[in-house]
Amino acid sequence: MSEIASQDRISSDLRELTALIDEIDSDRTAHGILGGEHGYGADFENDVFEMHPYWWGECECGHEAREWQWVESNPHAKDCYQSRINWDAPREQVERQVETLCAELGLDPHWGSWVHCTCSHASDWAAWVAANPHPASCPTVRANFRHKASGFEVRWYKYIGRGMEHKPLSRSEWRNVFRDCEASLTFASLAGGS
Questions:
Q1: How confident is the model over 144-154, as pLDDT tens digits?
Q2: Nearest one of 49, 25, 42, 13 to 191, comparing CA atoms
Q3: How many Cα neighbours within 13 Å face the side chain of 122?
Q4: Contact 46, 22 (CB under 8 A)
Q5: What is the spatial distance between Cα 121 and Cα 102, in angstroms, rounded to a whole number?
Q6: Helical H runs in 25-60?
Q7: Structure pTM?
Q8: What is the rounded distance in angstroms from the CA atom of residue 141 to the CA atom of residue 189?
């Protein structure tokens, strides 16, 4: 089996792609301090790949509003742990209720005591979320980098390299992805940008 592309190599090459995008159109490049000059990525898309900086904003597809509507329309059962606690009571009273009810139901009063659910609400909600995902274009879930032909995606937290997640890729596969992206930018720069 081929050697796997290192996180350092992928990070370095993604910063290099960002620098090339910056040469084409500096308004597309996200800037910051911790990630370095080209460490935050760019908001860019062409026929070969797309790149987006880490998204700090809210959901833009309406999923969170639909999810909230589902939660409001599907309350916990009356005998559920969640329904039996008076969450509006003063904190000391809530803590006593939690301790008493956890003891009665055999639940851990320390781990997750504010989110225990003893009805089907939690599993019903999980099923709804699985059946109603955000669209891939929503900035809260889209990849920070996606090579279109291979489907290879990279996600990072705040800046390239931090908390980076992707499927393993061989060094030669990554080299091909990177060269394809780089060539698309070279063409774009000769054509006056994209």
A1: 999 999 999 99
A2: 25
A3: 9
A4: no
A5: 18
A6: none
A7: 0.73
A8: 29
